[in-house]
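Q: I'm writing up a methods section and want to include an example of the input and output format. Could you take the sequence below and give the corresponding predicted structure tokens, formatted cleanly so I can copy it straight into the document?
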Amino acid sequence: MKIEQLSPPVHTAKRRRSPWSAYRVALIVIAGLVASVGAHLKVTYDKAIRDAETLISALAIASEQHIGGSLAGIDALLDELAANVREGRHTDTHFSNDFAARLPSYPEVKYIGIVNADGVLQPDTWPPRPLPLSPEGVNVSANKYFTAQRDSKGPARMVFGDPVAGPAEDGRSLYLSRPIRDRSGRFVGVAVASVDPDAYATFLSSILYDENGACALIG
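A: Here is the clean output for your methods example:
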């Protein structure tokens, strides 16, 4: 009988993976995901900032055109009135009617008037407006828009007063003035416009992109 010698079985050893290796792989994957999400958030954030800057620039341009145009127009009216007072033409019926006819184009203007060298508001205003009855009249000589013009020695320019409750109207008013000087350059009063600051505030509110936001005109 032939006896065959059997070779011993071959045992294959399996290497057991360390749990720490799997942990390191998981950490690498998580770190990659975090880096990817972070990069995406950075791109999104940068885009949001650029979009916000574009929006703010557009709002600033809109504000400048609307409010700047309003103030430039009022300044021109005051300059024209000051020139006519200097020439004594402000009491002319033709000038007065023409001047009053242009004011509806400026709904933010409550009225335009004349203050004499003593700081007393004259009774004739455009449009006509009843003034409080007082023996000495409405005296505004302590107001910034008057004192700044009275004390100025430089070229004529428009001055902004502080928003206050005016003596001739209800609610707040922003007073804008231009000096009135005679032909020799002597100060004889101011042409003043009473402007409703809430008209500008309403406009600023209308252009807000976010109802929770805020908008202000500074300077």
